[in-house]
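Continuing the series of single-chain predictions for the mutant panel. This is the parent chain; the variants come on the following pages.
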Amino acid sequence: MTARKPVETSEKVEEFIERARSRFAKETPEKKKRFPRFLIVVNTLVVLLVLYLYLTGDPTKTYFKSRMNMGGVQYNVSLTRESGSGTFLFTVKLVSMRDAAVAVPFDGNGVGCLKLYYGENEITGRCAGKELREVVLQKNGTKTFAVFMRRNDITAILKKREGERLFREHRRFFNPGKTLIPLRAVVTINTGGGVSSEYTIKYEVE
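Parent structure:
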């Protein structure tokens, strides 16, 4: 029995085999990395939870805060609500920018007044520093005037004037027990003929 001789491979055959191997390696698709399904589920739940908390959480306690300068006096106005409370606080703070005492005249309707509107319809309004006709500020002095507004009173007026349809239209999808109604807040400083500024707030009904 004759033993088989080992097959000798020429250089050209080896080059051909090497090229075939390299081409096969390029054409072989790489396996895509896959994230475990439970991680996808967890991430989705986290996103939904954050969205839920954002949509159902208590709105910011400061509805607006602004300032204006007139006649060397700075007027800081704000509307705030303590979290979990049904009471709103409208504040007007006067800050003297002068180097001497100054007497600021007002028209007797209040240092600053706040009126709330739904669309073009006035809902309610209050004035801070009512009936004052003059406020004296010492050098770099400050004086603050404030007035409270109750949420129950505002809600009752809205229901009476706009009806239940308004509350159904603005009910929150993720929290049907809470309703946010867009209101216009108009602030007027009653000096120098009256200077007004306007803000948009989201009034919450629970």
